[in-house]
Design a protein that fits this description.
The complex is a heterodimer. Chain A is of the alpha+beta class. Chain A folds into 2 domains: 71 residues, Beta-grasp domain (Ubiquitin-like (UB roll), Roll), CATH 3.10.20; 70 residues, [2Fe-2S]-binding domain (DNA polymerase, domain 1). Chain A is 35% helix and 14% strand. Chain A is built from 6 helices and 5 strands. A 5-stranded mixed beta sheet of chain A has the order 2-1-5-3-4, with helices on both faces. In chain A, α3 packs across α4 and α3 packs across α6. Chain B contains 21 helices and 30 strands. Chain B is α+β, with helices and mostly antiparallel strands. In chain B, α9 packs parallel to α10 and α15 runs parallel beside α16. Chain B folds into 3 domains: 149 residues, Aldehyde oxidase/xanthine dehydrogenase, molybdopterin binding domain (Aldehyde Oxidoreductase, domain 4), CATH 3.30.365.10; 174 residues, Alpha-Beta Complex (Aldehyde Oxidoreductase, domain 3); 330 residues, Aldehyde oxidase/xanthine dehydrogenase, molybdopterin binding domain (Aldehyde Oxidoreductase, domain 4), CATH 3.30.365. In chain B, the strands form 8 sheets. Chain B has a 7-stranded mixed beta sheet, with helices on both faces. Chain B has a 5-stranded mixed beta sheet with strand order 7-17-16-15-8. Classes of the chains: A alpha+beta, B alpha+beta. The interface between A and B is large, with 58 and 56 residues. The complex binds FE2/S2 (inorganic) cluster (2 copies). One FE2/S2 (inorganic) cluster (FES) sits at the interface of chains A and B. One FE2/S2 (inorganic) cluster (FES) binds next to loops of chain A. Chain A: It comes from Pseudodesulfovibrio cashew.
Chain lengths: 159, 761
């Protein structure tokens, strides 16, 4: 089948197999490798992307489900320069191997839109679907807290 | 950001922003043009004889490029880099369910999985050796045909006469402890791509901790000359030891040899990774510790059995570290440590952060806590009283002539509010909740140890544009060695980070250095890099002296982007200076080797490689733990770590290492267990093999105890491993103080509830 969607702000039309997974289409056919695969079964969150603004696990979606949607990956999140949450993750040490980070960045960015002033507990809960094997989460939580401040004070991204 | 990142400053990692923005390319992000997919058929049976294999249907499928079996493997068909006992493809016998028996190369992933499913495998099952008891039984079936039965290696380390000394002790404690197999669960599973070019050179990009050594392992297994193997190792999406040694390498190389020059990709699924990837050794540890009435440790006798699974991998070396660290970071006059490394039909065990030491810390700290209770002593004071000091000899007799900050770490805990207020915190437990505060003192030898040259060769280049390029040659699996290399180069060359470039390991561009492992990565390559950068600085100052027409280079200094005359302020841009240098003259190389101890304990001859160690990082950990009396659920409310890693080069990176290791250690303590029954793994994916998520862990407080390690780059020691060793004993220590003397990890609710009923088995 043929699907059309907007990927990180760019319109794409491509022919896909009905059974193809969204994560593979994004990575292989579109060359956008920010969504990572860590499990393929919805446990790790590394493949998270925003579909029409909502965090979705691209390993559990069919490519067909992207038709007509707008998809934002961590790469797209940084298209006008790093998003404040990406800045904060980098500045505060929330990044080690970095394999979980693109998924965490999009999850956290969307969460902060809904919860501009979260507690650490709320941040931990929001990230509970994103596994990270390197950091122990402490600095990731620090970073999301800090990004909330950056966003709130308007000193984040230059628009 | 400061303009020149100085050593000791908290600064953002050089690699962080690209990773945060999803721009960094890992090995798994490579999809070369015209690529094929390779995949292995796994035995599915833990122990058996291969009677036959019908690959006809797979071979006939459109889109299948090759179906390979053991007969197609040239060379020795054996993997492993110290003990090569693991076939690339099994031909006659399978020894664990994850053994690879056939390899398929296909146009697409769909065809690949269909072809793999169509292979008919006829395996006659053999009785399964499902654990230590089964393996050590007198009439046990043999996993390998060894004269020693299933014992791969047996060894005893001795200092003094521990059995004799025990008979004179005022007090003796005794216990047996068990630890599970733990999976690394790096988020990026094992993968790589490979292509064989026309002249027979095999190019590979692999998620690997040891690109240089891989060439020898692949070469030997497949009969290829190592210099025809070209490996690149981009940033890894985690490693922790699980990518130290061939994972996809040999299979992938074999696939590429049958792909007609096309690139091939292999990427294990999470299920395949759990089934076929390496694990931390499960261990059984029986300890007898004796002390004088005032708590002075006198003698330790212990028996350690490590389940190495179906193949040796690094089992012997891992057991050696277990024996070496069995008496903890303490002075113990008499030691007898007996070890056996045992084959079973369980998944293959191998290197994992805390390499054999994470296991014994549970046992050693467990008996220390029992001793403290028996003597009615404060557990922290008992530890402090016996803690190794500079000049002491450790458990196996090695003189502590390197930096030794164990006492200082414990002193940090002693003064910490969580320790000071421990009784009050316990008293204030909510209803139906038990509370305990536990501590642990741990250490972890650094580097390969004696007998195995631990060396690195660093290269730094001045580019055409007048920038500096560091050629890293030890993989960065996330621990942050390579950004630290940039920081070191910035400091010595006095450059801004923006003038730095960093190349990840590439066997054609960088120079041979050891693996990313053993806490030696930053230390060894760092020492080499310091020399390379100092040589570069001196070279540039001398060349600039000619241009600036001064006869004394000491009046010149490097400043960001230029050489500057300190007196006149005149500057010569590096971009201009580079034009005067011959291309061959634009790089500098430095090399370093880690020092080793000359003290070899009795029994140590059994370990030719990697034993004993000279330099140790130390740590003291504290956990505030709560147990729900109704559900048996254990939660850690607060965690504190004091770590002696020598000088801290970047506090941010230091804390990352500690916090990440503690998280992995808490997973080990509370949840993680590769549960196999009859050799069949039941924890097959991340829904039933549980690693901690953000909601499961507390904030982790990290404090540095900065000793100065004279031999280390800028005084540092490697802390990648030591943090892993504290959480299990610290949590166990808290549980013991609540009346739950746990001896088997992980501390699942079922085990806790059983312990409430007095059952600790
Ligand atoms: S890869 Fe999608 S959740 Fe793990
Ligand atoms: S940084 Fe490695 S998995 Fe999160």
């Amino acid at each position: 089948m043929i699907i059309s969607f907007v990927l990180d702000g760019e319109a794409r039309t491509l022919e896909v197999d009905g059974g193809a997974r969204a994560v593979d289409i994004l990575r292989e056919s579109c060359g956008v490798t920010a969504p990572k695969e860590g499990c393929g079964t919805g446990e790790c969150g590394a493949c998270t992307v925003l579909v029409d603004g909502v965090p979705r696990l691209s390993c559990l979606m069919l490519a067909a489900q992207l038709d007509g949607r707008a998809v934002i990956t961590a790469q797209g999140l940084a298209s006008d320069g790093p998003h404040p949450v990406q800045e904060a993750l980098a500045d505060l040490g929330g990044v080690q191997c970095g394999y979980c980070t693109p998924g965490i960045a999009v999850t956290a960015a969307e969460f902060l839109e809904r919860h501009p002033d979260p507690t650490r507990e709320e941040i931990r809960e929001a990230l509970s679907g994103n596994l990270c094997r390197c950091t122990g989460y402490h600095k990731i939580v620090d970073a999301v807290e800090d990004a909330a401040k950056r966003l709130g004070s308007g000193c984040g991204r230059d628009e | 950001m400061p303009s020149v990142q100085t050593i000791g400053s908290r600064s953002r990692r050089f690699d962080a922003m690209d990773k945060a923005c999803g721009r960094e390319r890992f090995a798994s992000d490579e999809y070369p043009e015209g690529m094929l997919w390779a995949g292995a058929l796994r035995a599915g049976v833990p122990h058996g004889v291969i009677r036959g294999m019908d690959t006809a249907r797979a071979k006939a499928m459109p889109g299948v490029v090759a179906v390979l079996t053991a007969e197609d493997v040239p060379g020795e068909n054996r993997q492993g880099f110290i003990h090569w006992d693991m076939p690339v493809l099994c031909g006659d016998k399978v020894r664990h369910a994850g053994d690879a028996v056939a390899l398929v190369v296909a146009e697409t992933r769909e065809v690949l999985s269909e072809a793999l499913a169509s292979i008919i495998l006829d395996i006659e099952s053999l009785p399964v050796v499902d654990g230590l008891d089964a393996a050590l039984a007198p009439d046990a079936p043999r996993v390998h045909d060894l004269e020693t039965g299933n014992i791969l290696k047996e060894a005893t380390l001795r200092k003094g006469d521990a059995c004799e000394a025990l008979t004179h002790c005022a007090v003796i404690v005794e216990e047996t402890f068990f630890t599970p197999q733990q999976a690394h669960c790096f988020l990026e599973t094992e993968n790589g791509t490979a292509r064989m070019d026309e002249d027979g050179t095999l190019h590979m990009t692999v998620s690997t901790q040891a690109p240089f050594r891989d060439r020898f392992e692949i070469g030997r297994a497949l009969g290829l000359p190592p210099n025809r193997l070209h490996l690149t190792a981009p940033y890894l999406g985690g490693g922790f030891g699980g990518k130290d040694g061939a994972t996809v390498q040999c299979l992938l190389a074999l696939a590429a040899m049958h792909a007609g020059g096309r690139p091939v990709k292999m990427w294990w699924s999470r299920e395949e990774s759990l089934l076929a990837g390496y694990k931390r050794h499960a261990a059984r540890m029986h300890f007898r510790l004796g002390a004088e009435a005032d708590g002075t440790l006198t003698a330790l006798v212990c028996d350690l059995d490590y389940d190495t699974g179906a193949y040796a991998h690094l089992g012997v070396e891992i057991m050696a570290l277990g024996l070496e660290h069995a008496s903890g970071p303490y002075r113990v006059e008499h030691l007898e440590a007996n070890g056996r490394c045992v084959y079973t039909n369980n998944p293959v065990a191998g290197a994992f952060r805390g390499f054999g030491v994470a296991q014994v810390c549970f046992a050693f700290e467990g008996v220390m806590d029992r001793l403290a209770a028996k003597l009615d002593m404060d557990p922290l004071e008992l530890r402090a009283k016996n803690a190794l000091r500079p000049g002491d000899r450790n458990g196996v007799g090695v003189g502590m002539i390197s930096s030794t900050g164990m006492k200082e770490c414990l002193a940090g805990l002693r003064g910490h509010p969580f320790w000071q207020s421990r009784d009050q915190w316990v008293r204030e437990a909510p209803p139906l909740t038990r509370r305990g505060v536990g501590i642990a003192a741990v250490h972890n030898g650094m580097g390969y140890g004696r007998g195995l040259a631990d060396s690195a060769v660093a290269k730094v280049r001045l580019t055409e544009e007048g920038r500096f390029r560091v050629y890293n040659s030890v993989s960065d699996m996330g621990q942050g060695n390579s950004p630290t290399f940039v920081q070191m180069a910035c400091e010595i060359l006095q450059q801004d980070e923006s003038l730095m470039e960093l190349v990840q390991p590439d066997t054609e561009r960088s120079h041979p250095s050891g693996s990313s492992s053993a806490g030696r990565t930053t230390y060894t390559y760092g020492n080499a890099l310091i020399k390379a950068c100092e040589a570069m600085r001196d070279k540039l100052l001398h060349r600039a002296a000619m241009v600036l027409m001064v006869d004394d280079a000491s009046v010149l200094e490097l400043v960001p982007g230029a050489v500057r005359h300190a007196v006149t302020g005149q500057e010569l841009p590096l971009a201009a200076l580079v034009g005067m240098l011959h291309p061959d003259d634009r790089f500098c190389i430095g090399e370093a080797m880690m020092p080793v101890t000359q003290d070899v304990p009795e029994g140590g001859e059994a370990f030719r490689l990697g034993f004993p160690h000279l330099i140790f990082p130390y740590a003291a950990h504290l956990a505030r733990v709560e147990v729900d009396e109704l559900t048996g659920n254990v939660s850690v409310s607060d965690y504190v770590a004091f770590t002696d890693g020598g000088r801290v080069l970047n506090p941010q990176n230091f804390e990352q290492q500690v916090q990440g290791a503690v998280a992995q250690g808490l997973g080990y303590a509370l949840w993680e267990d590769c549960f196999a029954e009859g050799g069949r793994l039941l924890t097959t994916d991340l829904s039933n093999y549980v690693i901690p998520g953000a909601g499961d862990l507390p904030d982790i407080e990290s404090h540095a105890v900065e000793t100065e390690e004279q031999s280390g780059p800028f005084g540092m020691k490697g802390i990648g491993e030591v943090g892993m060793n504290g959480p299990l004993p610290a949590v166990a220590s808290a549980l013991l103080r609540m009346g739950l003397p746990m001896t088997r990890a992980p501390f699942t609710p079922e085990r806790i509830l059983a312990a409430f009923d007095g059952d600790n088995s």
